Amino acid sequence: MPEKKPVIYIIDVTNRDGVQTANIGLAKLEKTMVNGYLNEMGVSQSEFGFPFTKHEINYLNANLELHELGYLSPIKLSGWMRAIKSDVELSMKNVPKLKHINLSISTSEQMIKYKFQEKYDRSGVIKSMREAVKAARGYNLTTIGVNAEDASRTDIKFLTEFALAAKEEGASRIRYCDTLGYDDPHSIYDRISQLVQTVKTPVELHCHNDLGLGVSASVSGAKACIDNGVDAYINTTINGIGERCGNADLVSVILSILKSGSFAGKYRLDSLIKLNMAWKICRYASYAFRIPIPINQPGVGSNAFAHESGIHADGALKDRRNYELYDHEELGRGEPEIVESGRQITLGEYSGIKGFYNVYGKMHIEFKNAAEATEILELTRYANVQKQKPLVNDELVFIAKYPEQARKILTLTP
Fold it and tell me: What is the sign, positive or negative, of the torsion defined by CA atoms of 206, 211, 212, 217?
């Protein structure tokens, strides 16, 4: 049989790292929609939240139900927790159907000395990680990822020792966290190569953008994995939203792998990825986070395919390839967008049944009886209360199709 070539997979962390960003957030319904769009886009996995956090429990369990129902399938839904045994036990008690987790602990001398402040030394870090992985293995999980927080500033010998211990304990892969965006494409390639050559296990690249290198470092780290014979997993967020200066942007990473000079046609991206979902998912995230897409955002910015200067306009009109590396249609752009300019009936927290029927009727959605319609109306009211902004059509359709799970997602119990 021919040897299987390594593949680059995408694990999106918008619903974990993205929502940790200061001054912004997503309602649980919006997190659910993000998972739905990621699934539609063919993203391998969504790190969908914190199973040890009380206000996440209903949302997480409902999303796992949606996975069983096929709405969130085949995407994997993974929970994040500290590499502490008690976190694992509490998380699995709260969300017993969880099958994919990532366990995180800091490994750099900076973090051990000044974050843990003598609570752990290096041996203590490994001991806590081992205990957490061992506890996790008792829950019939499918994948257990182990995160080395601040891996880019961790001594490579200790990082290798940590990764070998994780592998020995039964971890599925190692997450190399460039927590402060410290790495550059050259340093991360060298460090990942050293790590993989010794540990021989797949690596997740989790790169922040503090130096503007999040995408380039992620792609270079993935290249090191593939060049050394193991699969790579790149962590992304939609529109690059993340703590401080953000994370590696989902669409930019995909474009870099598919279109850049040393990658195009040479490295294998997960075949399930559908780039033509880019426009839709980025627009939704912009709406949900209330953060405009920069006009120069790769692929989805308003200027990504705009030409004004004479030389550029002339060249683009003669042949788009003169000044465009890829086509706008590939990203799902180009279709006309309808903007209502006349009478509008919308659904809000105080809407009534007549307006409700009007809105759903325009989407050609009918209800079995008045009782069912009233039930869905109440759910849309609660959704508006939770979101504090208008529901988009996809959210209205979701609530009508999955009312039981929508009710659970909208229920927050202090």
Answer: negative
Structure tokens at 78: 């993974």
Dihedral (C-alpha) 301, 307, 308, 313: value to the nearest 10 degrees? 180
Determine the Cα–Cα distance for residues 34 and 49; give it in Å rounded to an integer. Answer: 12
Q: Domain 8-289 classified CATH 3.40.50.2000?
A: no
- Write out the two tokens for 320: 């788009």
Distance CA(402)–CA(257), nearest Å, equals 36
Model confidence at 158, pLDDT cuts 50, 70, 90, reads very high
Q: Encode burial over 218-242: b for 16+ CB neighbours within 10 A, e otherwise.
A: bbbbbbbbbebebbbbbbbbbbbbb
Q: What residues does each domain of the chain span?
A: 8-289, 353-410
**Does residue 75 carry a pLDDT above 90?**
yes
Contact at 8 Å (CB) between 187 and 213? no
Q: Which residues does residue 351 pair with via DSSP β-bridges, in sequence order? A: none
Mean of pLDDT values over 205-216: 98
| Cβ contacts of 336 within 8 Å, gap of 6 or more | none
Is a pLDDT exceeding 80 seen at residue 2?
Answer: no
Q: Which residue has the tokens 């839709």?
A: 280
Q: How far apart are CA 251 and CA 198, in angstroms?
A: 32
Q: Which neighbouring-strand residues pair with 203?
A: 174, 232
**Percentage of the chain with pLDDT > 70?**
99
Q: What is the pLDDT of residues 20-72, one digit of tens each?
A: 999 999 999 999 999 999 999 999 999 999 999 999 999 999 999 999 999 99
Is pLDDT above 70 for 1?
Answer: no
| Tokens found for residue 239 | 């529109």
Per-residue DSSP letters for 78-133? EEEEES-HHHHHHHHHH-TT--EEEEEEE-SHHHHHHTSTTS--HHHHHHHHHHHH
Cα distances from 299 to residues 275, 283, 318, 325, 395, in angstroms, run: 10, 12, 21, 10, 25
